[in-house]
């Protein structure tokens, strides 16, 4: 199997006055070409830091990638020079995130900015770049594309800006798109349209997508493969069906149960009691133990290993592994 991306034992820490925050603490996963991988977890679990690490956009100080490998087509991105990285960003790997206002500069038109992004990576004339920018806007479902190119970002609605940011990200045909909560700020109808659009684009141009969200409903819509993160670690890694049919980690089960199910009357939502732990004072053992209904003595002492409990379905929990790190 040729993977497009292989993340191996990634460790990214923040050196703060309160102490060291291991925001990403030994994360490993793979992405196949054209695959949509979902990354889900509560805010502060480290999922955005994973995306910033892949793009090498972790700012030092206070953040630093302190260990691991990020192999893109077999080459370690952590060994690339800043110049090489600038070529890869946008050209090979693109990032879209929640607030498109921060990816557009307010003082230039949309056409100017998408055109520049195209010209940065492709040797084409200004007119040709504008033509391609208009094509991209049409591809993401923006009507009157030629007029929109002349507009400034603040003149567009939130949904339109999000589409324009996707158009800009896709304008260089990236092999990998990292989408970090791209629809969180949008209302439900527009969110559904953007998700539909991204799935459609993924099929049309076969871009692999890492889709980061706190919303399991969105994961169920989008992803073929899911990583569940908790306190800087992947705690479950499975195919979408296996994960929803039989979530193994008590945290995943809690997340799934806290979603209201369709066709089911519920008076009260189940929720996971407690909060994400303080990142500078992680609990001993499994970081989920203070909130876990199934916690045992060993959970408060030692971190469980990640094991393959079922074919293609990995979990990090003492319910499934023995003390030697084997299958229980
Ligand atoms: Fe719960 Fe223990 Fe599993 Fe952690 S290792 S999720 S505390 S049962
Ligand atoms: Mg985030």
Give a quick precis of the structure.
The chain has a domain at 5-92 and 174-261 and 268-320: P-loop containing nucleotide triphosphate hydrolases (Rossmann fold), CATH 3.40.50. Helix content is 31%, strand content 24%. It is built from ten helices and twelve strands.
Layout of SSEs?
Elements: E1 5-16, E2 19-31, E3 36-40, H1 47-54, E4 63-72, E5 75-76, H2 82-91, E6 93-97, H3 110-121, H4 126-139, H5 145-149, H6 158-170, E7 176-180, H7 188-205, E8 208-213, H8 216-222, E9 225-230, E10 233-239, H9 240-245, H10 250-257, E11 306-310, E12 313-316
Parallel strand pairs: 3-8, 3-9, 6-7, 7-8
Antiparallel strand pairs: 1-2, 1-4, 4-5, 9-10, 10-12, 11-12
Helix pairs in contact: 3-4, 3-6, 4-6, 6-7
Residues 249-250, 286, 288-289, 292, 294-296, 299, 304, 317-319 line the site of iron/sulfur cluster (SF4).
């Amino acid at each position: 199997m040729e993977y497009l991306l292989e993340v191996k034992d990634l460790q990214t820490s923040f050196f703060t006055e309160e102490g060291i925050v291991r925001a990403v603490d030994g994360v490993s996963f793979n992405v196949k070409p054209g695959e949509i991988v979902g990354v889900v977890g509560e805010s502060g679990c480290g999922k955005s830091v994973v995306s910033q690490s892949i793009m090498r956009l972790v700012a030092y100080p206070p953040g630093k990638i302190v260990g691991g490998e990020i192999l893109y087509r077999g080459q370690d991105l952590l060994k690339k020079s800043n110049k090489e990285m600038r070529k890869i960003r946008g050209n090979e790997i693109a990032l879209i995130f929640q607030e498109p206002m921060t990816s557009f500069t307010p003082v230039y038109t949309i056409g100017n900015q998408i055109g520049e992004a195209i010209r940065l990576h492709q040797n084409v004339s200004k007119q040709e770049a504008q033509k391609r920018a208009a094509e991209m806007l049409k591809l993401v479902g923006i009507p009157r594309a030629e007029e929109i190119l002349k507009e400034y970002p603040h003149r567009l609605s939130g949904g339109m800006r999000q589409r324009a940011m996707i158009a800009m990200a896709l304008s260089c045909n990236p092999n990998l798109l990292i989408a970090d909560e791209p629809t969180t700020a949008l209302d439900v109808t527009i969110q559904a349209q953007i998700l539909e659009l991204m799935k459609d684009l993924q099929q049309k141009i076969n871009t692999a997508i890492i889709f980061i969200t706190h919303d399991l409903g969105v994961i169920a819509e989008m992803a073929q493969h899911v990583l569940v993160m908790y306190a800087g670690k992947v705690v479950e890694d499975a195919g979408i069906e296996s994960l929803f049919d039989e979530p193994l980690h008590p945290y995943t089960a809690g997340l799934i149960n806290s979603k209201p199910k369709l066709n089911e009357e519920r008076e009260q939502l189940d929720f996971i009691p407690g909060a994400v732990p303080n990142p500078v004072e992680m609990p001993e053992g499994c970081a989920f133990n203070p909130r876990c209904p199934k916690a045992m003595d060993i959970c408060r002492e030692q971190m469980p290993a990640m094991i393959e409990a079922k074919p293609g379905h990995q979990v990090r929990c003492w319910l499934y592994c023995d003390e030697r790190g084997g299958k229980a």
